[in-house]
Amino acid sequence: MPDTHFKSLILGAGAAGMMCAAHSGPGTLVIDHAKAPGEKIRISGGGRCNFTNLHTGSGNFLSENPHFAKSALSRYTPWDFLDLVARHAIPWHEKTLGQLFCDRSAKDIIAMLRAEMGGAGLWLQTSVEDIAHRDGRFHATLTREGARMTVTADHLVLATGGKSIPKMGATGLAYRIAEQFGHRVTETRPALVPLTFDEAQKTVFAALAGTAVDTRVTCNGAAFDEAMLFTHRGLSGPAILQISSFWREGDQLSVRLRPELDLYDQLRARRTVGGGKATATVLADLVPRALARHLAEAWGVTGNLADQSDVSLRDLARRLSDWQLTPTSSEGYRTAEVTLGGVATDKINSRTMESQILPGLHVIGEALDVTGWLGGYNFQWAWASGVAAGRAI
Ligand code: FDA
């Protein structure tokens, strides 16, 4: 016999699930197997949560259907979220490229969402054993504080996110339940993730660990002008995290160092005024010293700048503008910020996030095949899709 009946049962007290609960009215229960709600919010943006991006548009998302996100994003915009943040008097700042962060702590956003959830129930450390649908209701068998129980609900919202950071409790549960009810799940893979290289390259990058340089990184038609960071394991930094969503095994990256400069002009100008310097020394005016040293050695750059012909300077500028690197893999779900792919959008209503196969079933947030770029877009999707489902319930 069911113990309790709710209008809506939301699986996952993350960004999307809490936002949905804030809009779904009385009779809402949110469950999560974690000890606290919004754990990914807490660690996001280096503890300051990059909670939205002012320039959010559907073009900042990857999905089988690039139009799917448009409806929800247009009905709940970054400005709507900013209104909410203002009502809770949370101080914030724009860091760069429209990315908004908390001044104090990501915990401000969690507290705000908790308050917005009002009277919705929140059961933590609760796991899902089984979900069934019969007699027009969802029946969820749960384990809470060691006790098994069943709850029923008219609406079931899948908000358990993707597979990234399993150590924090990511499970892919939403995919399994969606499949159980006839939905397709697209291929999933780690995204917004550092890339790794073969041993030889790894050794070189490890020697440069901590060095950051402005780049344009290009792969499969996508290009990002942001910083690239060398690490003990390979490459990271915003430019690499961004491109990782487009990179596939076997693909090469093209790295343009200092993309804002015409490097050939720069080298020629320096030859005119300081040609007596070693070319490798002059390179260190353009890129960090340790990287300049490595590149000069790897590319066999010797002699003074004055000794270099126009042709060799052009060749050096070309190499700096198209440094080709072939990652072997990524750091995987262990460190990926998001999961690319998810529940296919083709059988989900883009206004309500409701299943077109089983009315009453909704899928929101990262669990769906909608993956944002780095920079606050993923949270904006979590808010917008959560609101879309919450309003429809
Ligand atoms: P989310 O993952 O937030 O929530 C899912 C919830 O479901 C969790 O509380 C989890 O415990 C629960 N759950 C999972 N499986 C379960 C199960 N089997 N049973 C019960 N509960 C279960 N984005 C951004 O826009 N700006 C940023 O600054 C950052 N920074 C960032 C840093 C790091 C380190 C990471 C890992 C990620 C980010 N992101 C980000 C991405 C962002 O955190 C992510 O896209 C959203 O949290 C997705 O929100 P959801 O609510 O869909 O899932």
Give an overview of the whole structure.
This protein is of the alpha+beta class and 393 residues long. Helices cover 31% and strands 25% of the residues. It contains 13 helices and 21 strands. The protein has helices at 15-23, 39-43, 70-75, 78-87, 107-116, 173-180, 199-207, 238-244, 263-274, 279-286, 289-298, 310-321, 377-392, and strands at residues 4-11, 28-31, 50-53, 61-62, 92-94, 99-102, 121-123, 126-134, 137-144, 147-158, 189-191, 195-196, 212-219, 222-230, 234-236, 253-257, 323-325, 329-330, 338-340, 361-363, 371-372. Strands 1, 2, 7, 8, 9, 10 and 20 form a seven-stranded mixed beta sheet that branches. α1 (15-23) packs parallel to α5 (107-116). The model has no long low-confidence stretch (mean pLDDT 96). Bound molecules: dihydroflavine-adenine dinucleotide. The site of dihydroflavine-adenine dinucleotide (FDA) has 38 residues, from α1, α2, β8 and α13.
In short:
The protein is an alpha+beta fold and 393 residues long.
Which features would summarize this protein structure in a list?
21 strands; binds dihydroflavine-adenine dinucleotide; RsdA/BaiN/AoA(So)_Rossmann; 393 residues; 13 helices; elongated; alpha+beta; seven-stranded mixed sheet; single chain; seven-stranded antiparallel sheet
